[in-house]
Amino acid sequence: MNSASPKNVVRIGLSAAIVSVAEERPRVLVVHHANAPDALPFGPFDPLGHRTLESGLRSWVSEQTHLDLGYAEQLYTFGDRGRHALKSGEGPRVVSVGYLALMRAGSELKTPDTLWRDWHLYFPWEDWRSAKSALVDGVIVPALAAFAKSASSAGETERRRERVRLAFGLEGFTWDEEKVLERYELLYEAGLVEEAVRDGRASTAGLSANPLGVSMSFDHRRILATAIARLRGKMKYRPVVFELMPPTFTLLQLQRTVEAISGIQLHKQNFRRLVEDQGLVEGTGKSVRIARGRPAELFRFRREVLGERPAPGVRLGSRRAAG
User: Which is deepest, 91, 117, 147, 193, by most CB within 10 Å?
Assistant: First the structure.
């Protein structure tokens, strides 16, 4: 006799953060329905029909979106209680395995309820390409200062303040573009994003009059934050950025793609020197005419670099532009 009941059964779901870059904008594929929060593409894992978790992901993404995934890697397993906001007796608890997938721009969407959206719609404080995000000093820092002050002990107040300094690059610390998840988790814990209210972790009192980014279904904004952080970190030691590039490209196009993903601005000459010195690209002998400028040389990814050293990525570090 099977004594399992919906309340003690766990089902496995698969969620995909599918990323592309177009017109210098980092984009994520979302499922969009009227009167419902945006969601990442997601579906159930069928242990009988799917040989592996990844094959299951590729199968239902192809079925639901008519897109064939290229590069994909597993991120993390997301299983917080309440992540699907189920009420008592509604069904089994769902644990979701998140994936990051990369696609080149130009893939036509064939389903009416999917669209590409700039990921800064959900994380507006993460775009520092032109200048420091005004949200940080104007809204986030004061709200998190109040959150730290509201702690139940002096020790906890200082721990919260330290987390804020590290996550947002304050008081002598520098902005670390990879701490996307840490920043989102802080805002969630402080009750400053809509998901915290929806999950019953906070009241609406802490929400800004201007919401901090657009909310997403379930814990999909947390999954997307994890994907952005993974991509920003990984492109420094693996050439994954070229999964987002066309077969041939100019160095300026490559720089703008790296900037779109990292959220920071780079020195043009230093970036070119870095890419060429590391042997990541090679010239094609062809060029393309740029509006109001002289022809720009076309390059391609030099795949031989994968066998030449263990960590061939686009390192940023001191290559950032000032300000």
Answer: 193
DSSP string, 227-270: HHHHHHHHTTTS-GGGGGS-SSB-HHHHHHHHHHHH-B-B-HHH
Helices (H) and strands (E) in the chain, counts: 9, 8
**What's the predicted TM-score (pTM) here?**
0.90
154-198 pLDDT, tens digit per residue, is: 999 999 999 999 999 999 899 999 999 999 999 999 999 999 888
d(CA 306, CA 37): 41
Residue closest to 119 by CA, chosen among 21, 241, 209 = 21
| Alpha carbon distance 44, 56 (integer Å) | 8
Length of the chain: 323
Measured CA to CA, the distance from residue 38 to residue 80 in angstroms comes to 20
Are β-strands 10-22 and 93-102 bridged in parallel, bridged antiparallel, or unpaired? parallel
Is the CB of residue 178 less than 8 Å from the CB of residue 126? no
* pLDDT tens-digit map of 108-167: 788 888 999 999 999 999 999 999 899 999 999 999 999 999 999 999 999 999 999 999
Query: In order of start, what are the domains of the chain with their CATH numbers?
Result: 6-119 (3.90.79.10), 124-213 (no CATH), 239-319 (1.10.10.10)
